[in-house]
Amino acid sequence: MFADYGLHERLLKALSSLSFTEPTAVQAAAIPPALEGRDLRVTAKTGSGKTAAFVLPLLHRLLQTSKPQAGARALIMLPTRELALQTLKEIERFAQFTFIKAGLVTGGEGFKEQAAALRKNPEIVIGTPGRLLNHIETGSLRLGDVEVLVLDEADRMLDMGLSEDVLKLAKACPVERQTLLFSATAGERALNHVVSEIMRDPQQLLLNRRDDLNENLTQQIITADDPSHKERLVQWLLAHEAFAQAIIFTNTRALADRLGGVLRSRKFNAYVLHGEKTQEERKEAVERLRQGNINVLIATDVAARGLDIEGVDLVINFDMPRSGDEYVHRIGRAGRVGQQGLAISLICHNDWNLMSSIERYLKQSFARRVVKELPGSYQGPKKLKASGKAAGSKKKKQAKKTGATGKAGSKPAGRKSDKGRSAPVALGDGSVAPKRKKPTPAAEG
User: Fold this and answer.
1) Which CATH superfamily is domain 217-368 in?
2) Tell me: the pLDDT tens digits for 385-427?
3) Sheet holding 217-223, edge to edge
4) Where is this motif: Q motif (predicted)?
């Protein structure tokens, strides 16, 4: 129970009004040490309730002491505008019975309006690294009073090349602060470097491993012959699967736009979300999905992180993601916090090896599914390696090798050896002297 953590009574009142009673696993693990002031490095899967795991201790700390003359007392960094906006809404819900205010600072919004909002001195500043740095450079944001620094989706920020910005912002905060870092994956060398630079003896909480996805999520693959076959399969699935809301992921903006046009022409309530959309268009896409005006969102990976939309129960990978981590982030949209969900990946011949690599990464085998109404000729590789990847034909490999390198010292068929022949004599003008003919033997008399 949340009451067992000793949270401020106004936060407990908000939790009660929101019908929050039992904490999730990540909340139960992270809230107690965060309340003690420990630095935390938390790895937790998407949709596990990790936002509340840092927001509640942060709000509790701010409520314990009032500092009306201080600047921003907490800074929350996130990779995308959508995630920043969702975090702001979560803070507003939990802080509804307090006087704590939060300000949003992201790209794609009016800079002057943000600067004006910062002059009102919000206790919490939420933003994306690039725009936060812009405000520091112009003097509209000062971080000298920050007591708590939060990095949410830290691995994603580093994937986006924001490590230098993150380090600059961290160094602008006081050394004596609490730092809470949350990520969906354990990360690699870059994340470890950031942790060593900005955290002090952090307690590590590993709440999920690669093979520990949402228990209520069913994962399937359907083989397809080509992109047009995939389009027909998507239409069939949307027409026959029972779902409330669906997200379809593609690897390119062009394909997302094309698929959106195809689905709308078939009268599906679909909307496209990708990086070339304006901020207003992106807000509209997310809001229309939330409100139920549309029930299908076609998205690139810009939407794979941070979308916390209740009711998404179907995810379709039109293209396989390029890594196991991205796969986890995509399918994490469905089956969130105990809900049932279905994730379906459409696999052409050029997707198979990538799909197999992701299976090995997750230590899982996806269920094979056949849509009898839309049969295809491709059913997977005829031969498989021990790794599960497609095994190429030995004849094809040999032909490819021979064609690329040729055999050393081999001679074209049908040609006689040049051994014993004298080299042609070059003349001074660049021409070559004609070959001498052998004399015809004289006839015997």
Assistant:
1) P-loop containing nucleotide triphosphate hydrolases (3.40.50.300)
2) 877 787 764 545 555 555 555 544 444 454 444 444 555 544 4
3) 270-273, 296-299, 245-249, 312-317, 341-347, 217-223, 367-368
4) 1-28
> pLDDT tens for residues 239-259?
999 998 999 999 998 999 999
Q: Which CATH superfamily is domain 2-206 in?
A: P-loop containing nucleotide triphosphate hydrolases (3.40.50.300)
Instruction: Give 422's Cβ-side CA count (13 Å radius).
Output: 9
- pTM for the whole thing? 0.65
Backbone angles phi, psi at 167, to 5 degrees: -65, -40
Out of 94-98, 203-207, 218-222, 224-228, least confident range:
203-207
Cα–Cα distance for residue pair 28/56, rounded to 1 Å = 12
The dihedral of CA 423, 429, 431, 436: what is its sign? Answer: negative
For residue 255, which of 308, 298, 212, 193 has the smallest C-alpha distance?
A: 298
Instruction: Using CA atoms of 17, 36, 209, 158 in order, give the dihedral in degrees to the nearest 10.
Output: 100
